[in-house]
Design goal:
Blueprint (H helix, E strand, L loop, with lengths): L10 E5 L3 H14 L3 E5 L2 H10 L4 E5 L7 H9 L8 E6 L4 H10 L4 E3 L4 H16 L3 H14 L3 H14 L4 H13 L3 H14 L4 H14 L2 H14 L4 H13 L3 H14 L4 H14 L3 H14 L4 H13 L3 H14 L4 H14 L2 H14 L4 H14 L4
Parallel strand pairs: 1-2, 1-3, 3-4, 4-5
Pfam families: Response_reg, TPR_15, TPR_16
Keywords: Phosphoprotein, Repeat, TPR repeat
Protein name: Response regulatory domain-containing protein
């Protein structure tokens, strides 16, 4: 499938640690007619280019030193200003968990090495058509996201209703209704929609995670574990989910299970340097081997300094070794990347309490509660502060 002429002016970035592969893909893109082609030798190099240049399409190897393709993608996606960048992964590996993780993270697709130019051309044409000529459903869903972001709830709901008229059986639209009701403060109704999305698409990982998160916030540990485990069965390499499951197992008193899930994950994804380091750090934190955890997490952070999940674990390690000021610095850096993370504000508030800085602690925990009023843990701590320090919630 030839690339339409109007698409050929976009900026392409080719990321691969093998020089021959970078050259092969770049030559293919040139023959297709693309005019702006940049190359990067690994994920770290690519991240610098993305932060300093206008990039539209990234064709990226998965297994690379320093920072893998999936680590790069996760880091880029955490910053909303890069949401329009399209990622196509290329890999010589066809392990189920690798493919599942790439799909779950939201990549536009993957190609197995070796491949011919026609395969790459077809994949690029497909994703660019979707970007530049979206369907009416995609346009309604994009408008829904924009209205939801600005909390224009009536307009957001109307966009979903219009999309549902076109595709009443769409799991994605039904899932979006769940997100809408969750933000409206109706978690029970949100769960109903998420379950309906799963009924229509049994491998809908995000819906399982969404239900797990609601139950986690409500303090229903066993129900949260049930849904996170279901998501884990489908896609076993999601770092954030693995860490969440481990902590939930610990809360449920299943200490051996909490430790083994992290151990198994580390051996499974050892080639992902910062990810495996992150998991090892969490494993040591769970055993209160905090100095060792801090050492490993600092290394993981240096490998991938914009991964907010690693940053949260690092901040926890700093708190546990008695360096709360360092933890606050890390929390502030996370909020520069994502200022709507309720648990970062919550943990920042708890850190200020440890430091004896009461006013900042109250402000941070209030902000956490505004962002996530369903959290039993945040609500309980805020009420305790309100009773002790005599302020209204």
């Amino acid at each position: 499938m030839a690339i339409p002429i109007e698409y050929l002016n976009i900026n392409c970035l080719v990321v691969d640690d093998e020089a021959s592969m970078r050259k092969t893909i770049s030559n293919m893109l040139t023959r297709m007619g693309f005019k702006s082609i940049i190359t990067a030798v690994d994920g770290k190099d690519a991240l610098t280019i993305i932060q300093t240049s206008k990039i539209d399409l990234v064709i990226c190897d998965i297994n690379m030193p320093e920072m893998t393709g999936l680590e790069l993608f996760k880091t880029v996606r955490e910053n909303k200003k890069y949401n329009d960048i399209i990622f196509i992964f290329v890999t010589a590996e066809i392990k189920r968990h690798t493919v599942a993780r790439a799909a779950e993270e939201g990549g536009a697709g993957y190609i197995i090495k070796p491949f011919v130019m026609a395969t790459l051309e077809d994949k690029i044409a497909g994703v660019l058509n979707k970007k530049f000529k979206p369907s009416s459903i995609e346009m309604h869903l994009k408008s829904f996201e924009q209205y939801l972001e600005s909390r224009e709830m009536l307009s957001a709901e109307n966009e979903l209703k219009r999309a549902l008229e076109i595709a009443p059986e769409s799991p994605t639209i039904i899932y979006s209704f769940g997100r809408f009701h969750l933000i409206k403060g109706e978690p029970d109704k949100a769960i109903e929609y998420f379950k309906e999305a799963i009924a229509k698409k049994p491998l809908f990982v995000k819906a399982y995670d969404a239900i797990g998160k609601i139950y986690e916030d409500m303090g229903d540990i066993q129900s949260a574990i049930k849904y996170y485990e279901a998501a884990h069965e489908i896609s076993s390499s999601n770092t954030d989910r693995l860490i969440t499951l481990s902590k939930l197992y610990s809360k449920a008193g299943e200490i051996n299970k909490a430790e083994s899930i992290l151990k198994d994950a580390v051996s499974d994804i050892r080639q992902d340097v910062s990810t495996s380091g992150h998991l090892m750090g969490e494993m040591y934190l769970s055993k209160n081997e905090n100095e060792k955890a801090l050492e490993i997490l600092i290394k993981a952070y240096k490998k991938n300094p914009l991964d907010t999940s690693i940053m949260q674990s690092l901040a926890e390690a700093y708190r546990k070794v008695g360096q709360p000021e360092k933890a606050i610095e890390i929390y502030k850096e996370i909020l520069k990347i994502n200022n709507s993370n309720a648990f970062v504000y919550y943990n920042m508030g708890k850190t200020f309490i440890e430091m004896g800085i009461k006013d900042k602690a109250i402000d941070a925990i209030k902000k956490a509660w505004e962002l996530n009023p369903f959290s039993k843990e945040i609500t309980a701590d805020l009420k305790a502060l309100a009773e002790r320090d005599k302020f209204d919630i």
